[in-house]
Amino acid sequence: MAARIMILNGPNLNYLGIREPHIYGSTTLGEIEASCQQLASYLGITVSFHQSNLEGELVNLIQSAHGSADAIIMNPAAYSFTSIALIDALKIFEGPKIEVHISNIHARDELHRHSITSTASTAVICGLGPYGYVAAILAAVQKLGKLPAAVPASLHGLRATN
Ligand code: CA2
User: Fold this and answer.
1) Residue 161 counted as domain residue
2) Which domain range does residue 57 map to?
3) 33 falls within a domain
4) Nearest residue CA, atom 8 of ligand 1?
């Protein structure tokens, strides 16, 4: 069965490419989704892509991933720094959970530096801009062991268990 990835985006990310391009770049969320869908068809996987400004809606989506997605990729945006509800929901999901930030949160101000949701994530990717979503898809599909055999061996990883 093809790998199914759910990609979640938190509050205000619908303004990507429209406001504050000096911090978050000029790529829109629609363009990020298009690049994720393009990679998904290349890899033979499915991607469902969502954005919500509401914490409870993100919790509902994570809960709905049970049985409908094999991995979750999430940019929780501002909820990264506040949301116990997202942590609890993520902990219940058993598959790979990859947190993505467009900016390098470690190089940001005190308010934007300490992600608490990352404690419930398998891995964190930050500072790569929109390419972080591409890297996260590759990593999630590799972790699921569902990369096509035809991709270069290096993308499969050095050990089957890593
Ligand atoms: O770098 C990221 O992806 C962030 O998750 C973005 C969050 C920020 O709170 C995190 O520290 C890092 C902010 C998302 C708000 O998105 C906007 C997009 C355009 C203009 C204004 C806000």
Assistant:
1) no
2) 4-156
3) yes
4) 77
| Span from the CA of 131 to the centroid of ligand 1 (angstroms) | 15
Which two tokens mark 22? 């000096």
Q: Is residue 117 part of a domain?
A: yes
Q: Cα(15)–Cα(159) distance, rounded to whole angstroms? A: 40
Give the angle subtended at the CA of 52 by the CAs of 142 and 105, to the nearest 5°. Answer: 60
- 122 occurs within a structural domain: yes
The verdict on whether 101 is a catalytic residue reads: yes
- Name the pTM for this structure: 0.96
Catalytic residue among 79, 101, 112, 133: 101
Number of domains into which the chain is organized = 1
Distance CA 96, CA 70 (A): 7
Taking a C-beta distance cutoff of 8 angstroms, is the pair 53, 12 a contact?
yes
Query: How do the pLDDT tens digits run along the chain, 162 residues long?
Result: 899 999 999 999 999 999 989 988 999 999 999 999 999 999 999 999 999 999 999 999 999 999 999 999 999 999 999 999 999 999 999 999 999 999 999 999 998 899 999 999 999 999 999 999 999 999 999 999 999 999 999 999 986 555
The CATH number that applies at residue 142 is 3.40.50.9100
- Cα–Cα distance measured from residue 41 to residue 38, given in angstroms and rounded to the nearest whole number: 5
